[in-house]
Design brief:
Layout (H helix, E strand, L loop, with lengths): L8 E4 L6 H8 L11 E4 L2 E5 L6 H8 L3 H7 L10 E5 L3
Antiparallel strand pairs: 1-2, 3-4
Helix pairs in contact: 2-3
Length: about 90
Amino acid sequence: MKLELSKGKFYRIKPGQTRQAVEDELSAPANSVFAGAVIELPECTVHTVSPFETYGSIAKAYGVGEEYLKAFNGARLLYPTRKIFIPGKE
């Protein structure tokens, strides 16, 4: 099930869900994952990493700060086909 993301929507973590499972289901970053936690779904775009892309090149393409992009994604390692989240502009 995919959810359309918009400011003000919330999601309750189910027992047994991992961070990756929550992110895959919602197509949104989930930094605090534990059963019963309620997270606010940020407005974001999902980007699939291509070969040779870096946080810097992706940040520049979307007009966001590199360090902010890293933090928004938990500074996870980039590799081709990885999906990362681009924060929406407010």
